[in-house]
Specification:
about 190 residues, mainly beta, Immunoglobulin-like, 2 domains, four-stranded antiparallel β-sheet, about 35% strand
Length: about 190
C-alpha cells in the first residue's frame, strides 16, 4: 500500500521538474515578463527569452516557474526578454551563469535589471615582479616587459629545489605549454600593476 501527503487530484511532481522562485527588489512594470534563458534549446539557447515566469498576483515581487527539464543539467540566466535587461542576482557572482539541474528547487533574488557589468572579483595569489625581457642581440625582436609570478610563500621558503614560476609577456605564457606543465597552458585574465 502506498500513501501520500499530496492533496487529492494533484499529481506528484516529476523527478526532473525544476521549480524556481525569484523575488525582485522592486515591483516590475505590468508590461514586464521575467524569463529564464540558458544553454539548452528548451531555455532558448541563450536567446534572452527562454521560458516565461508567472507573476504572483498577491505579491508583485514574487515570480515562479515550474518546468520539466529536458536535460539533466544546464546553465542559465534571467532577463526581462533581452540581454539589455539581464538580472543582477544577489546569489553567486553578478552576471555569471548559474548552474541548474533536474529536480532543482531554488529561490533567487534579483537586485536590478540592465546591461551586464564587468565585475572583477579576483585576488593576488602570488608575488608579481615586472622586469624587462632580455634584449635580442640581433635587434630583431624588441624587448618587452616580462611578468614573473612566484608563489606567495616563496620569500619565506628555504630554496632547496625547484619552485613554480610563471613567466608571461603581454599576458601570454612565455613557455611552450606543449613541452611543459603536461601540456596545460596558463593564462591571466587581468593583472593590476
Amino acid at each position: 500500500m502506498l500513501s501520500s501527503c499530496q492533496p487529492a487530484g494533484e499529481s506528484s511532481p516529476s523527478t526532473s521538474e525544476v521549480r524556481l522562485t525569484v523575488f525582485t527588489r522592486d515591483t516590475l512594470a505590468s508590461a514586464d515578463t521575467l524569463f529564464i534563458t540558458g544553454s539548452t534549446a528548451q531555455l532558448g539557447g541563450w536567446n534572452g527569452r527562454g521560458l516565461a515566469f508567472k507573476r504572483d498576483l498577491e505579491n508583485p515581487l514574487r515570480w515562479t516557474l515550474q518546468f520539466v527539464a529536458e536535460d539533466s543539467a544546464f546553465a542559465y540566466k534571467l532577463t526581462l526578454g533581452d540581454w539589455s535587461q539581464e538580472a543582477k542576482l544577489e546569489e553567486g557572482i553578478a552576471f555569471r551563469d548559474l548552474g541548474g539541474w533536474e529536480s532543482m528547487d531554488t529561490t533567487l533574488h534579483a537586485l536590478s535589471f540592465g546591461l551586464a557589468e564587468r565585475v572583477n572579483d579576483g585576488q593576488v595569489s602570488g608575488f608579481l615582479t615586472v622586469v624587462d625581457a632580455p634584449v635580442d642581440p640581433a635587434g630583431i625582436i624588441p624587448s618587452r616587459k616580462m611578468w614573473v609570478w612566484m608563489p606567495y610563500d616563496l620569500k619565506h621558503t628555504e630554496l632547496t629545489g625547484p619552485v613554480d614560476v610563471l613567466l608571461m609577456s603581454g599576458g601570454q605564457n612565455c613557455i611552450d605549454p606543449a613541452q611543459s606543465t603536461f601540456g596545460v597552458d596558463w593564462a591571466v585574465d587581468e593583472a593590476i600593476l
